[in-house]
Specification:
Blueprint: H1 8-37, H2 43-69, H3 73-103, H4 114-132
């Protein structure tokens, strides 16, 4: 992210986040492949379906570790603001989409897209926050 300074906490955050994101992508693809080709049944279906969510939980933990480890209050505040804007964008989008689903024939919003959409909003907010403090 452009809003993060080149500190030890930032480098560690980016490395951990990249690992968790890669795990999410690999697990999602592997689980999709398993369901398409092997048709699992019983408790295995639940275990497989939950695996990608564990990588999402790891990403949330990585964010918490970054916030706990970042000593630069300004950088921590900037990151928190980006996350809050991301959350606000996600809540706004899903609220609007939910109303549209209730009253129009719009397609259903798949919850699997919630986390990626959140990070898109975080990424979109960062340049505006950076500009605000220049």
């Amino acid at each position: 992210m452009d809003c993060l300074a080149n500190t030890a906490a930032t480098r560690q955050y980016l490395r951990r986040f990249a690992i968790a994101m890669a795990a999410y992508i690999v697990l999602t693809m592997a689980v999709s492949f398993c369901f398409r080709h092997f048709y699992p049944t019983g408790p295995l279906t639940y275990l497989l379906a939950i695996l990608p969510a564990l990588a999402i939980i790891a990403q949330i933990v990585v964010v918490g570790l970054y916030l706990a480890g970042e000593t630069d209050e300004f950088q921590r505040n900037l990151f928190i603001q980006s996350v809050l804007w991301g959350l606000g964008g996600l809540l706004s989008l899903t609220s609007i989409w939910g109303m549209l689903e209730s009253f129009t024939p719009i397609p259903h919003f798949q919850p699997i897209w919630t986390f990626p959409v959140f990070w898109c909003f975080v990424g979109l907010s960062s340049p505006f926050l950076i500009r605000r403090y220049r």
